[in-house]
What we know:
Bound molecules: adenosine-5'-diphosphate, magnesium ion
Mean pLDDT: 96
CATH topology of one domain: Ribosomal Protein S5, domain 2
Oligomer: single chain
Low-confidence stretches: none
CATH architecture of one domain: 2-Layer Sandwich
Strand order of the largest sheet: 5-4-6-3-1-13
Shape: globular
Helix content: 40-55%
Strand content: 15-25%
Distance between the termini: 15 Å
Amino acid sequence: MKKKLVKQVSTFFEGCFNAEPQHIFLSPGRINIIGEHVDYNDGFVLPAAINKYVCFAVSQNEGTQCSLVAKDLNDNYSFDLNDELKPVDKMWVNYFLGVLHQLKQRGNLKGFNIVFSSTIPMGSGLSSSAALECGFAYALNEIFELGLTKEEIALIGQKSEHTFVGVNCGIMDQFASVFGKKNCVIKLDCNTLDYEYHKADFKDYTLVLLDSKVKHTHLTSGYNVRRQEVEKGLAVIKENFPEVKTFRDCTEAQVEQVKQKLGDTIYRRCLFVVREIQRVLDAVDALEKSDFVKLGSLMLETHDGLSQNYEVSCEELDFLVDAVRNDKNVLGARMMGGGFGGCSINLVKKGTEDELIERVSREYKAKYHIALEAYKVKIAKGTSLYKK
Ligand code: ADP
Ligand code: MG
């Protein structure tokens, strides 16, 4: 799959620029095993890069002309390196310009030609956007020897999304795309960027993503409202327990004790956060012990918390999780990402994936008249130069 993508992109590059590309880079999408909506709540997350990639064919030139060709969109964009960079109407271009804007301040650049194409579905919550930003930053860092660290590349990707795209995302997506390691998950502290790799050998089990193909519009408003709710909640908790500085050092018992003061909604939001932070730690422990039954049940608990207490799921995602809840071949499932659409992530017995996908697709189609898409994913290494 990777080879085929590389071949297609290289061939396309030759067609566009009448020469072979000098370099090929691959930048992966990502999953998150557990730890949802805690990146901005002082928790840990447990993401991993996957074997779906944006592939970049890149050559530098001696001038200052830059060309970007988006093969999948059959679109392109050219500009001069000395142009003042501002967000443009073509949204995909902004991921690049936002990165370039920062890189121009970091070193001497020259013109370049790029063709890119991807196997990461766009807008399904697998972070095609982070793969794009970070892959581009990584490529320019290599060819122009800018000396950026991986952490800087991830931060540049995030900032590009904040400033040129207008999405106020956390750092998890970019970090996972750049720091991904084969068969390892990353336990990441989103506050400090401290991280640890943990082996993720699921033995007889494997990961399957079921893409609901829906994206409800209240994603952004829902996200902003949740952020305000937990901020208010934490303020009340801190007032009553001065020893608590962040959600990380708050216990479930403390949340219970101020239940009345929080009011029902904020109480449930805080309860979810405190429990989710603990679940990530328990999940790492379960992984270390190869206790996949435990890991699966934690994933289901996360889903139920996101659905009932944090209220960021939707009918379709609940349906996908309920459809596998009692399947003996599925140890766990949950909605993944910000919510209100996107994919569910499932821990499935190897060899039973197709049967599962076929059944759930049929049931989902009957109920919602939507063709489900399923992705069997493997945990792969982060953004890198592809050795030809
Ligand atoms: P996600 O990151 O979950 O896939 P986003 O909405 O954050 O979803 O990012 C998707 C956007 O990234 C697309 O709308 C497009 O602008 C850009 N993008 C992603 N993949 C590609 C691609 N293969 N070609 C062109 N643009 C892409
Ligand atoms: Mg994105």
